[in-house]
Amino acid sequence: MKLFTFLACLIVISTQLFSQTYTNENMPEMGDSVAIMANNDMTVFTPGDGGEDVTWDFTNDSYPDDDYFVFVNPSTTPFADEFPDAVMCGKSKDGAYQYYSSIMNEMEISGFATNLDENDPDNNIYGYFDPPINMFDLPLSYGVKQNSTYSGKYVLAANEFPLTGTVNTEVDGSGTLITPTGTFENILRIHVQLTETGLAGQQVDRYIYVSEDYRFWIALHEEITVSLIGDVNIQKWYAVNPISLSQSSVAIDTEMTTLNLFPNPTEDILTINSRNRIETVQIFDAKGKLVATANLNGNTSHQMDVSNLNAGIYNVVTSSEGVFTTTKFIKK
Predict the structure, then answer these.
(1) CA 266 from centre of chain
(2) If both were cysteines, with which of 62, 221, 323, 330 could 265 make a disulfide (CB 3.0 to 4.6 Å apart)?
(3) Which domain holds residue 278?
(4) Is residue 11 situated within a structural domain?
(5) How far is CA 285 from CA 186, 220, 309, in A?
(6) Is the predicted pLDDT of residue 257 greater than 90, yes or no?
(7) CA–CA gap between residue 95 and residue 254 (Å, rounded)
């Protein structure tokens, strides 16, 4: 009996020592910015198997789209008055704002807002959730299951569309994630399923890949179905600059005019000019594979020979004092 008790204690201790855990430390902080490479128009949804000690490989897909997320103080956003209780806001490149009512001990989304026409500042769509969408409670570890409900409304052109929804969350996998950026250990895969009833009838099937060594997500793969119009959108993305817990927050330069590439398209030599001092240059192909790098050591101009690259569209990511700028060029 004593031997059995001793072995059982060893099993418990080893589980506690070696299992991955996602905690408050891993939540985004104000000022965090994450550059991502994405495929926003996929045709097949293939999240792969769950389980323990799984390896997920994101290097077999193409990633022609670039995006970013910046976490800012809600009071600095154009829709601050609509979400006075938000504690943080996540802004994406396309001008969508997502408002969080809590990011400590749980991740709760209280709403979102985005402008639909840059020439009409009043042409906006809003989402209000009360109670909020509870994506998950913290801490998370493999095998954890949670569920919750939410309600609210979408508002478009003064028309309101009420909704209710359920959230089912399960940490269904742990292991290793491989992206074009690198290989990441201590990964947890969070499977979140949202089902809404209402006019749109939206269903979201989302897989989030996180690590106890990093803040925010490392990668995401999701399928969104809108029953009203029969639309299905599948997207997949990975972080180009995941923020480790030992790393200071980084920023992403949203003013694309700070970086100029010419000639564009080009056959051989690509000239890179910047208003800021450039530390590094990375070139990614349409699959998100890193195909060329250069260390500029603070120079503001550089020429790269891209004659050996195949014809196609490439993304150039430069870093300058922790600021990442992304733009595209075409190789003829």
Answers:
(1) 31
(2) 330
(3) 253-331
(4) no
(5) 27, 19, 9
(6) no
(7) 11
Q: List, for residues 44-88, the tens digit of each pLDDT value.
A: 999 999 999 999 999 888 888 888 888 988 998 999 999 999 999
CA–CA separation, 12 and 278 (whole Å)? 50
User: SS3 of 196, please?
Assistant: strand
- 216 with 264, same domain? no
* Contact of 50 with 70, CB cutoff 8 Å: no
29 has a pLDDT exceeding 60? yes
Query: pLDDT-derived band of residue 246, with 50, 70 and 90 as boundaries?
Result: low
Distance CA(58)–CA(187), nearest Å, equals 13
Beta-strand pair 269-284/312-320: antiparallel
| Residue 4 maps to a domain | no
Asked if residue 304 lies in contact with residue 284, where contact means CB atoms within 8 angstroms, the answer is no
Q: How many CB atoms lie within 10 A of CB 145?
A: 10
In three-state secondary structure terms, 86 is: coil
